[in-house]
Amino acid sequence: MGDGMKQITVGIVGGTGYTGVELLRILSRHPNVQVRYLTSRAEAGRAVSEIFPSLRSVSQLHFCDMSDALFDEMAQTCDLVFFATPHGVAMTHAPSLVNSGVKVIDLGADFRLQSLDEFANWYGMTHSCPELLAQAVYGLPEVNREKIAKAALIANPGCYPTTAILGLKPVIDAEKQLGNVVDGRIIIDAKSGISGAGRQGKIAISYAEVADNFSAYGVSGHRHTPEIAQGLNEILAAVFPKKIRFVPHLVPMIRGMFSTIHVPLTDTGSKVDWQSYFASSYQHEYFVDVLPSGVLPDTRSVKASNKLRIAIDQQADMLTILVVQDNLVKGAAGQAVQNMNIMFGFDELTALDLVPITP
Amino acid sequence: MGDGMKQITVGIVGGTGYTGVELLRILSRHPNVQVRYLTSRAEAGRAVSEIFPSLRSVSQLHFCDMSDALFDEMAQTCDLVFFATPHGVAMTHAPSLVNSGVKVIDLGADFRLQSLDEFANWYGMTHSCPELLAQAVYGLPEVNREKIAKAALIANPGCYPTTAILGLKPVIDAEKQLGNVVDGRIIIDAKSGISGAGRQGKIAISYAEVADNFSAYGVSGHRHTPEIAQGLNEILAAVFPKKIRFVPHLVPMIRGMFSTIHVPLTDTGSKVDWQSYFASSYQHEYFVDVLPSGVLPDTRSVKASNKLRIAIDQQADMLTILVVQDNLVKGAAGQAVQNMNIMFGFDELTALDLVPITP
Amino acid sequence: MGDGMKQITVGIVGGTGYTGVELLRILSRHPNVQVRYLTSRAEAGRAVSEIFPSLRSVSQLHFCDMSDALFDEMAQTCDLVFFATPHGVAMTHAPSLVNSGVKVIDLGADFRLQSLDEFANWYGMTHSCPELLAQAVYGLPEVNREKIAKAALIANPGCYPTTAILGLKPVIDAEKQLGNVVDGRIIIDAKSGISGAGRQGKIAISYAEVADNFSAYGVSGHRHTPEIAQGLNEILAAVFPKKIRFVPHLVPMIRGMFSTIHVPLTDTGSKVDWQSYFASSYQHEYFVDVLPSGVLPDTRSVKASNKLRIAIDQQADMLTILVVQDNLVKGAAGQAVQNMNIMFGFDELTALDLVPITP
Amino acid sequence: MGDGMKQITVGIVGGTGYTGVELLRILSRHPNVQVRYLTSRAEAGRAVSEIFPSLRSVSQLHFCDMSDALFDEMAQTCDLVFFATPHGVAMTHAPSLVNSGVKVIDLGADFRLQSLDEFANWYGMTHSCPELLAQAVYGLPEVNREKIAKAALIANPGCYPTTAILGLKPVIDAEKQLGNVVDGRIIIDAKSGISGAGRQGKIAISYAEVADNFSAYGVSGHRHTPEIAQGLNEILAAVFPKKIRFVPHLVPMIRGMFSTIHVPLTDTGSKVDWQSYFASSYQHEYFVDVLPSGVLPDTRSVKASNKLRIAIDQQADMLTILVVQDNLVKGAAGQAVQNMNIMFGFDELTALDLVPITP
């Protein structure tokens, strides 16, 4: 029996958020995966299709409570557990799962920042399992594929960092290869659809507040800033001594993320043919699409798919990199499944070859 | 000094909802009104412009807590108090205000239903001041102007009932004048923008839930059904023995209400020239606009204004009445100010001659 | 080699509309279908992925011009041709294709109305091939599955009629079975997302005109009215002597259709347990989902899928039927593929088992 | 009779666009203005309220054709003519009006760029009246108030340049006062609602294309770039030798513009207390509101009003300036009326003290 027939059993902790339902949508069509557990404290006992009628006839699962007994059972029966939870949850439960040989993918933030100080600073709590954190692999396949294949624990990247790191990877490659191509500070001016704020009852994300409206938030500091910096400085480059300025905004749309990255170039940098450089950088990556010169991206072109598209505009001494993705797919659940496919030796595209929805 | 110069002092109880901020928007440009009190339990002490930055440089008010002392003070100093509160609040505080000679306009539901049983049935509480309820005037100026002028307490109509009663008034007039024009049941298929659900943190009205989505609610029973029935049967007609079916829907837009009223006609009814009948019914009403034959309304044409527009489509034995209004203005705060103008002898259009916003 | 392996070659006439791109999205994942031709007068020669970047890496097709030579070639090489064109196009080209043994599915309106007078009246042109019209099968699988399986030419239903006919089928079945269950006129108050108006440059459907706005249209007469009447009176019942009133509205959302059907009941009708009646009517239909009692539908629950969901609310003498579908899928391209699957003996669910997108 | 009673007669050339209808909305409540002419080639003869039902009972005007005779008549009878037209129209007709003593405010682009080469380069036509261009005053009141008061011809600023120039004015003042505060390139990452694209029938701005979508445009070059550069370099500073990078984006909302301006600071620049600097810069400007430290703006807070709000975020060596306005008001029609008020000696706030619409 080939890999294509291998079956794994999966649990999802935190199944009532948008990341959870998106995992269910994708995994319901994955031939190698059976989702057996789906937790929710608030909805324990209810059918998932009661909360998400879109899943009627798709999933027969019921939410179960997040008890110790459940984690024990998952430790015995699961090959993989996804955490689609607020920070603090995964680091509590991951150690015993990993010790039992269960692989873990955390879609939350518990294992993204390697610096304990940065974690404490940005998330307001002390990390409870630094030794496990040290083993965690940052799950950005286009950067870390080999490590992911061997990992026991994956920190699934944040949505903004995915666009920033993949958008800047060729620049940093050039910086390493050619030296000193970037002149000064890189500006990441990012825009996200509102599903990025999660499924929750807050006035600030209610329809009448955010529809027909555009705003900035986290301008003086956002948790994804250190994650982007770590991605650029540590994961991609030994030392990438450039400063970053990251400013996120909220767009009145459901899904979609658009990062406009402004890179001032040195003379060396301005001589690079960036269109070609980017195209060749990603020529073997199915999920990263470098658009032809002159074509600009929109978020709709990736809606409900795992694609991330990049466009390049090069002027005399200024490189503008435009990156789009669906924040819930390549920015969250899709990337998690991509990591899963790599970890278990499935074809990386399995269940992920989703055609974007237009219009 | 003429009426134009008369100044009144006003309090608003419940100032953090959309009806409250809309009252402030309108009253801020009313030459005869000074809003002195604005209450909010949650935001007491904060400037209103902190919560609603749109009111920076418009209102210097701060929220005050809803204490007994405050109500005592308002009883001494106010000419009028608006309640923009959930049901149950106004009926607690209105009696002492009215006894002190302060006029009250309740934008909530406490004084809309004259039947104590219906009130208890639909609002889940016993009415605490039935004797005051008996004095309350239903504040629909185009129907009840003379009573409003003399009222001490106004029940400001619900948004749906405003469209239904004004949309059907000429039909009921014809029923009274000609006899038996309606054949069977009247269907009121209504659609509302999401601000009608109020300013609150609930998953069900969060952007990602309701954007790009259309739904029905309250299909098996909605609180506005008895209010519409009361309006048609008791206020307009001695007896209007026709059944009503009211079904509300939620539209992914901020403001706006659209009621499609389907009226089956008898032979007598089908001989009426309804376009003329409606046009002459409302020819002297500034805030009710009967559109020319063949013109269909949209909610945008009344956005942010106190206008209610009606279009008529007449087929062999079927009359379709299309009614639009801004649910927060003619459906709530604007109508409340219209009632205030009538109660205090101001020109009825004062501060209400708002030009709709297009686009 | 089983049916599962059978391969067919397909052409799509009119590939730049939303129905065309939706056909491509669905067919790109159909294991038995190769789309070889895709026409567009305006975009001839361009890659389809230039117009629809969502199809980059999904389709390598280029638009070809709609010439006689092309139709000759398709007559030789295609098993099936879809027309996703304005009325008048399919009836010009279908006869020679059908004569050559090519099956045709017209997503436009040329073969929907069997009455030549009605066609001329509503579409403003004389039908050019009445003999072919007489052979056309109305492609509503849940009603006409056996005829579809043998058809050479399918009239794919309009979006509104799909909701109205499937929503009312159990009522008409009851009418036939029990006699006289409906008392008077049936009101179909329908609401559509804006993609239903097609992909075109018109002020009336531009964003700033229709966003945050709700309107009615076609109130005095809409082309889908005779199609619904034909569906109810001729296809479903020998004679269904009930009048219909159909009023469509435009909702500020991209996809989605919601029909609220108001059915007054006779005494006989009010004794039927409609929830059970509907549930058993559709228990074997995968794409029609009768919701449990008390659950109300929203359009989001079917977004980008081929599902049509129905909810029932029954009151004393009033039945309310709420129907939702994605107008571009079950209301157009999905239903066309469902018809194709039936015509060619493929599993009816092939490529159509799409999970709705939430949020 | 004081200035308050002075009456002027006004014509509007190009009355069917969003800028035109917004001018009508504002001027309809201006006590000193009578709009007598409103032109439209396409709609000549029709009532303005047929095209814009929001103006029923507000304006009785009919569109008139744009003939020579009309311009002769306006030259005789008007005090002021607004051009709300595509480029090329105003420069054809303004000279004879100005020669007749009629003041002109061009809301289009004909008189914005003082460089004939830049004009030809960006607008694809030779300027037809360079001598008049030389007299044109750039109508940004907060910068040019005294020149505006004396001008015969006003170039009303573009929407993006209004945010960029007012957002950067204090920085340039500091540059002039303190020397060398900006370190390198200023990035203007701007986002506009879709009404900025005008009222026209184009697929690219149709609802189904732009709703739930976010895109960039004009990345490789936009007509407002030279206008911003001119504003910073020539109007504000003798020489402001800093480079600008301007990238505009399209937001799925009707009205609103949000410019995020990223300014890298030198050591000198980082020592400035920018919050105070901005606050004192604009302390006497009613229409420019510098938000308190820590408060971030959203476009809703200025919707349908003439306010422009600015927030400042200062980090070690990076200043972020966030600017919001309603693109149709302070970014177009409102600013034009503000210019008019200054030119004719009316109180600058007349008809412009509009309360933003929330929600």
UniProtKB/TrEMBL annotation, chains A, B, C, D:
<dbReference type="InterPro" id="IPR036291">
    <property type="entry name" value="NAD(P)-bd_dom_sf"/>
</dbReference>
<dbReference type="InterPro" id="IPR000534">
    <property type="entry name" value="Semialdehyde_DH_NAD-bd"/>
</dbReference>
<dbReference type="GO" id="GO:0005737">
    <property type="term" value="C:cytoplasm"/>
</dbReference>
<comment type="function">
    <text>Catalyzes the NADPH-dependent reduction of N-acetyl-5-glutamyl phosphate to yield N-acetyl-L-glutamate 5-semialdehyde.</text>
</comment>
<keyword id="KW-0963">Cytoplasm</keyword>
<feature type="active site">
    <location>
        <position position="159"/>
    </location>
</feature>
<keyword id="KW-0028">Amino-acid biosynthesis</keyword>
<dbReference type="InterPro" id="IPR000706">
    <property type="entry name" value="AGPR_type-1"/>
</dbReference>
<feature type="domain" description="Semialdehyde dehydrogenase NAD-binding">
    <location>
        <begin position="9"/>
        <end position="151"/>
    </location>
</feature>
<dbReference type="InterPro" id="IPR058924">
    <property type="entry name" value="AGPR_dimerisation_dom"/>
</dbReference>
<comment type="similarity">
    <text>Belongs to the NAGSA dehydrogenase family. Type 1 subfamily.</text>
</comment>
<dbReference type="GO" id="GO:0003942">
    <property type="term" value="F:N-acetyl-gamma-glutamyl-phosphate reductase activity"/>
</dbReference>
<keyword id="KW-0521">NADP</keyword>
<keyword id="KW-0560">Oxidoreductase</keyword>
<dbReference type="InterPro" id="IPR050085">
    <property type="entry name" value="AGPR"/>
</dbReference>
<dbReference type="GO" id="GO:0006526">
    <property type="term" value="P:L-arginine biosynthetic process"/>
</dbReference>
<dbReference type="GO" id="GO:0070401">
    <property type="term" value="F:NADP+ binding"/>
</dbReference>
<comment type="pathway">
    <text>Amino-acid biosynthesis; L-arginine biosynthesis; N(2)-acetyl-L-ornithine from L-glutamate: step 3/4.</text>
</comment>
<dbReference type="Pfam" id="PF22698">
    <property type="entry name" value="Semialdhyde_dhC_1"/>
</dbReference>
<dbReference type="GO" id="GO:0051287">
    <property type="term" value="F:NAD binding"/>
</dbReference>
<dbReference type="Pfam" id="PF01118">
    <property type="entry name" value="Semialdhyde_dh"/>
</dbReference>
<keyword id="KW-0055">Arginine biosynthesis</keyword>
<protein>
    <recommendedName>
        <fullName>N-acetyl-gamma-glutamyl-phosphate reductase</fullName>
        <ecNumber>1.2.1.38</ecNumber>
    </recommendedName>
</protein>
<dbReference type="InterPro" id="IPR023013">
    <property type="entry name" value="AGPR_AS"/>
</dbReference>
